[in-house]
Structures are given as structure tokens and as C-alpha cells.
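Reminder to self: C-alpha cells first, then the designed residues, so the page reads top to bottom the way the pipeline ran.
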């Protein structure tokens, strides 16, 4: 199939794999930070030695002598007798190395306000904030909840909490009062840091009122003693005397002297809640030394970071793991210069992101497939109006990237030449695990390809036996890794059951995967999204990828719906391209056409039972498609819990469109 402009040729061959590979170009390879393939086998000979070497890039107040302690699996300890201060590693040591004048953060507010903050300034602000938090009673071992917009004070707060040896629990600003309260209660946080509001879609999105509501729930009595409020949007807020304090009033009392102390490598750094298979969110606990080692190493190597010259931008919100590891800790530990943007991509127009790239000369850009597909839907004419020539590395995270989106990303955003690193990892893994190295890997669109040096992950069958090339199964991580989840906060049993019961002392990721004939890894989505149709194993991601190869389809979601004859049946939901809709007023018959198309692409077994054309797909606020809800629709069931949807109205629209078809 040839893309609109005829520049990319691709040949779907089998199960969503494509024949084409993209080797690094000679110029990129020559300058790349990692361009000697022996790194893989050297790390494989001695993974612990590899990570110990990487850990010495950090500044330790007390050097470690132990590397990994796995004497009590699945509870790992890394570098346990070493001590360090995470905040000092992200700040003071760069200033001490003479890099104080380097910009740490180019902040771009949604309304257009902008400020650039150097490492010296950021260090100064974090020290002041640490002094302020100390006087509010925060000490090592405490938990502090953050409910913040994407502003520099969010980064400052996280680093100030870390500096004191306390742990933060960042709750994404889109969560409800009820969800916020559940997380505050579970972590027993005594301080909440929030803002009056943040800007989203040209409007003020209030935050402090939600904190008030959260703290008033369940009769009011919570663990929270103080609420610190950053002024951002100047919306009306009520301040409760004795409990609530304005950041800008408090901070004036504190200067920038703060001597940080070292804490044990296994000191908790943060808790981040993520949804599991049951209703109660899991508090994923990450600690200090191992986490900082792996996030900084992967950030440098996977993005080929040159901190002196690169301008890095990760579009993730700090409320998610990607924001923790690749907005805050990875880039700052590496002394990188980065962009932080407060708002949404379409504000005030769909050109906003590209304008920001042009303005700051962004050279490394990291975003999610769902965003790329949104831009594809709008059309390449928007990014084409901007100068994106500074881009040299592109990253993808969050879900499998379909080859069609991969090619568009490379062609339209990466000038047809930027390597794309498709990074597989999870809240639980803390840092990237499977990803290409851009100076070495012959890239395959849609595949995350190989475990990073020092990581041993593979595909196993249900009994835990490794599968051969060409076969599918479950993704397992065979050895402990430095940034791994240490436990589920307050629930060691659930930690064991969820990740370790299935394969003993190996980690069960919950993702399906297959190895292609070359031994490259293809992630196939959550195992709950793997369908079994007439005894054949089919991946939702694979069929979605096929559908998106069709000229009419912008985005698709596939579910396995219960079927009396075949066990499960494939049901597809498709959003059409704007360009297709302009040319076709009538979409009658397109559903049949798409069924046949999938049959042709993958095989008759994969042909969807139903294809529904819908205006939108249900997504969480972090952009993940909620297939569970689509499955309910496909099975004619009552629709389940929609509380984590970004737009709860979307389900009734979809249902109307589907019923209209039945
Ligand atoms: C970082 C992050 C984790 C789940 C994971 C998998 C999916 C993430 C992916 C990917 C295929 C990739 N996932 N990256 N699937 N290719 N490059 O997203 O963490 O929010 O915890 O989600 O996301 O299914 O299990 P988290």
C-alpha cells in the first residue's frame, strides 16, 4: 500500500508485521551515544555488573557495595547499603559541575505565558520549597499528595519532597474528588499540594475546589493537616483557616540554603496509583537508587541524549508514570533541557505542538500513538506549516503503535529520517524495558523489538516455557531490574498475587507478545484483549492495525465479544478519516468493505463479525481506549463503570450509532 504522497512503500506480510526495516543512517549511527552492538551481550553476561556501572553515574553520599538482593523474592533490593539524595542528583550536582546556567525547563503555559528556568534557579527554588515543607512538618518517610496542573511548581514540589526523604503521591488533575480522597487515604498523606487551577482547552480547570470536596467526603476526618495552594489561574477559592496556605505567601519566609542529606537507596521515592483488574487502584511503590539509575540510563541511551545541545519534550502529564520517569527524574538526572507544556494539543489550534517544537527547536520528541492518530485525522497539512527540522529522535509510548501511524510519524514529523523508538514499559516497571537503540536497531514499524541492555524479557507460553520465533504468548521479565515496583503500597499479598503467582520468581506483565522470525518482540496488548476465536488466538492490536491500513479509517478499537458458536467473535469500532468523510457523504456498505479488507489483510479467521462506524472511541484521560466498555456494547450488555473516561458522554453516542445499525 502506498501512502497519499507516494513516498512510503510498505508490504503487510503477516500478523501486522511489515517487511520493511529502517536501519540507522550512517551519520546518525556515527554520532550515536550507543553504537557498538556488543553492549547487548556484555550486559547479558553480567546484568548486575552492567547496572552497578550505570549506578556509578549517580552521586552517592555513601557508595553501595551490594548490587541486587533477591534473597526474599519478589521483594527486591538494589544497591541497598548505598545512600544518595535523589533531588541533589537532579539539581545540585549539575550546578556544582558548572551547568547552573543551562535551561532545565522551558515552560509554556496554555494561554501563551512562557518562562525558562535554569538549573541554578530550579535548585534555588527546590531548596526554598524544601525549607518550607520542613516547617510544615514534612520529614523522611512521610507521604505528600500532589494534585496539580502541568506547571514548574509541580516539578519543584516533587523534588522538594524527594529532597527530604519523603514520598510523593501525584494524583492526575483529571481525577474526581472521590478518587483523590481514596488515594490520600490509602497513602495516609498529611499534606496536599495543589493549585487554584490550571488551563485546559482555553478554560480554567479548577483544582483546589476538588481538594476541598475530597477532604469533606466521608464526614471530613482525613489524615490531611495542611493544604498548600499554588496560585496559577486566580479563580475563586475558599481557604480554610489553619489548614490552607498560599504557596506564594509562605515561600517568602524561606531562603535558598538547604543542606540535603543522603537516604538509603531503598527509601521510598513515590507511590503512583494505577488501575488493576479489580476496582481498587494499586499504589505502585518505587524507591530511590535503582529507580534513578534505570530512568537516567534509559533516557540517555534510548533517546541518544546530548544534554549540551538537545531540547527534549515529552508530552505526558506528570500525573502518569511517563511524566514521573521521563519528564521529572530521567531528564533532570541527566541535566537535559526540556519543554513542559501546560495545555492540550488543540489549543488554540491543532498547530500548537508543532509551533512549540519550532519555537524551542525541540530535537527529541516523545508522545503516544493515540495523539499521533488524532493528528493524522486532522491531516498532515497542519504540521507541514511549521519548521520541524530540529527533530532528530521520535519516541512512542503507551500502547502498540500501528505501522500506519509509525510511518506517518516518521514521514510528517520526522522528515522521513528520524528514528522512532517504540518504548514498552509500565507503571510497575518504572522505566523503559523494551525499546530500540536508535544508533543500532534496524527499526520495524509496530515492534518495540528488543529488551534493553541489562533487561531480560521474553515470551512464554501459559506454563512459562519460552516460545520459539514466530510464536506468541505472554511477556515475562526473567530477572529483577533496578526500577521495578517494590510492592503495592500496604498490600504485599496483592503484589505477589498480581505479578508473581503465575510464573514464580519471574514477573508477569499482563501483556501478550510474540516473537517474529528474527526474534524481535511485538507487543500485542493486554492479555485481556487477546481474543480466542474458534480456538485461534487473535490480537485486538493486530486487527486494529489492519483496519487502519484502510484509506477510510483513522482509528479503530477491536474487542472479542462472547459468541455462542466461536467462543469469541471479533467486533470492530472505527472512526473515519476527515478526508474520507469529505469525499463520501454516504458510508453505507463501508462496514462490509472493511470486514472483507481485514480478511484480506490477515486471513478469514480475523474478519470481524461486525464493524461499527462511530464518531469517537471511549478513552481514559491518559488516552487509552477502554475496550471493556466497547465489549459491553458489542455484547448488548449494560455498560460498565465509565468514571475513568475523559468524556463520559461518548458512550451514549456510540450506543446510538451501534443500535442504529442493528
Ligand atoms: C508507560 C505506560 C502500561 C501498559 C502496558 C502495555 C501498554 C505501554 C507500550 C505498550 C505496546 C508499547 N504499553 N507502552 N504496549 N507498546 N510501546 O504506558 O505505563 O500506563 O502503566 O501502561 O501500556 O499494555 O502493559 P502504563
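Designed residues (662 positions):
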Amino acid at each position: 500500500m502506498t501512502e497519499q504522497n507516494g513516498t512510503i512503500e510498505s508490504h503487510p506480510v503477516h500478523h501486522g508485521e511489515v517487511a520493511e526495516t529502517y536501519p540507522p543512517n550512517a551519520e546518525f549511527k556515527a554520532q550515536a551515544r550507543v553504537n557498538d552492538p556488543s553492549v547487548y551481550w556484555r550486559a547479558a553476561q553480567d546484568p548486575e555488573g552492567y547496572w552497578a556501572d550505570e549506578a556509578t553515574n549517580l552521586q552517592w553520599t555513601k557508595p553501595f557495595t551490594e548490587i541486587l538482593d533477591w534473597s526474599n523474592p519478589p521483594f527486591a533490593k538494589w544497591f541497598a547499603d548505598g545512600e544518595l539524595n535523589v533531588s541533589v542528583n537532579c539539581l545540585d550536582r549539575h550546578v556544582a559541575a558548572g551547568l547552573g546556567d543551562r535551561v532545565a525547563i522551558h515552560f509554556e503555559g496554555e494561554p501563551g505565558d512562557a518562562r525558562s528556568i535554569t538549573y541554578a534557579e530550579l535548585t534555588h527554588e527546590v531548596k526554598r520549597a524544601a525549607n518550607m515543607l520542613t516547617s510544615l512538618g514534612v520529614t523522611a518517610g512521610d507521604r505528600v499528595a500532589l494534585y496539580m496542573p502541568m506547571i514548574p511548581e509541580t516539578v519543584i514540589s516533587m523534588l522538594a519532597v524527594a529532597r527530604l526523604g519523603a514520598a510523593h503521591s501525584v494524583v492526575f488533575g483529571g481525577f474526581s474528588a472521590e478518587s483523590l480522597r481514596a488515594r490520600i487515604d490509602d497513602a495516609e498523606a498529611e499534606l496536599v499540594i495543589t493549585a487554584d487551577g490550571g488551563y485546559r482547552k482555553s478554560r480554567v480547570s479548577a483544582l483546589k475546589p476538588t481538594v476541598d470536596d475530597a477532604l469533606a467526603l466521608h464526614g471530613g476526618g482525613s489524615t490531611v493537616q495542611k493544604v498548600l495552594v499554588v496560585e496559577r489561574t486566580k479563580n475563586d477559592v475558599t481557604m480554610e483557616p489553619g489548614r490552607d496556605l498560599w504557596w506564594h505567601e509562605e515561600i517568602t519566609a524561606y531562603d535558598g540554603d538547604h543542606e540535603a542529606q543522603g537516604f538509603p537507596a531503598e527509601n521510598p521515592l513515590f507511590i503512583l496509583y494505577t488501575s488493576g483488574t479489580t476496582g481498587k487502584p494499586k499504589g505502585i511503590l518505587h524507591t530511590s537508587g535503582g529507580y534513578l539509575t534505570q530512568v537516567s540510563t534509559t533516557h540517555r541511551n534510548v533517546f541518544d541524549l546530548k544534554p549540551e545541545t538537545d531540547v527534549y519534550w515529552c508530552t505526558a502529564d506528570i500525573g502518569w508514570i511517563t511524566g514521573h520517569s521521563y519528564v521529572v527524574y530521567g531528564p533532570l538526572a541527566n541535566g537535559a533541557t526540556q519543554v513542559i507544556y501546560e495545555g492540550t494539543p488543540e489549543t488554540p489550534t491543532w498547530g500548537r505542538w508543532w509551533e512549540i517544537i519550532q519555537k524551542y527547536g525541540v530535537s527529541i520528541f516523545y508522545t503516544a500513538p493515540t495523539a499521533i492518530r488524532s493528528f493524522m485525522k486532522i491531516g498532515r497539512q497542519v504540521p507541514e506549516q511549521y519548521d520541524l527540522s530540529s527533530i532528530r529522535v521520535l519516541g512512542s509510548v503507551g500502547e502498540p503503535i500501528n505501522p500506519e501511524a509509525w510511518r506517518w510519524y516518521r514521514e510528517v514529523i520526522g522528515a522521513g529520517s528520524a528514528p522512532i523508538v517504540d518504548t514498552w514499559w509500565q507503571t510497575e516497571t518504572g522505566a523503559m524495558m523494551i525499546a530500540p537503540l536508535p544508533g543500532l536497531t534496524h527499526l520495524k514499524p509496530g515492534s518495540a523489538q528488543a529488551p534493553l541492555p541489562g533487561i531480560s524479557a521474553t515470551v512464554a507460553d501459559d506454563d512459562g516455557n519460552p516460545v520459539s520465533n514466530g510464536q506468541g504468548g505472554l511477556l515475562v521479565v526473567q530477572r529483577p531490574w533496578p526500577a521495578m515496583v517494590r510492592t503495592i503500597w500496604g498490600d504485599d499479598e496483592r503484589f505477589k498475587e498480581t505479578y508473581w503467582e503465575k510464573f514464580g520468581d519471574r514477573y508477569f506483565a499482563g501483556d501478550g507478545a510474540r516473537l517474529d522470525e528474527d526474534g524481535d518482540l511485538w507487543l500485542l496488548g493486554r492479555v485481556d484483549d487477546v481474543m480466542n476465536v474458534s480456538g485461534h488466538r487473535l490480537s485486538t492490536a493486530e486487527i486494529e492495525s489492519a483496519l487502519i491500513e484502510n484509506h477510510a479509517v483513522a482509528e479503530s478499537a477491536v474487542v472479542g465479544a462472547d459468541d455462542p458458536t466461536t467462543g469469541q467473535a471479533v467486533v470492530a469500532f472505527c472512526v473515519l478519516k476527515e478526508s474520507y468523510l469529505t469525499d463520501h457523504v454516504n458510508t453505507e456498505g463501508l462496514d462490509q468493505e472493511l470486514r472483507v479488507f481485514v480478511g484480506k489483510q490477515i486471513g478469514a479467521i480475523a474478519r470481524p463479525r461486525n464493524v461499527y462506524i462511530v464518531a469517537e472511541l471511549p478513552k481514559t484521560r491518559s488516552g487509552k481506549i477502554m475496550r471493556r466498555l466497547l465489549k459491553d456494547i458489542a455484547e448488548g450488555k449494560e455498560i460498565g463503570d465509565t468514571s475513568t473516561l475523559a468524556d463520559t458522554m461518548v458512550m451514549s453516542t456510540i450506543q446510538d450509532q451501534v443500535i442504529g445499525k442493528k
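The chain is about 30% helix and 25% strand.
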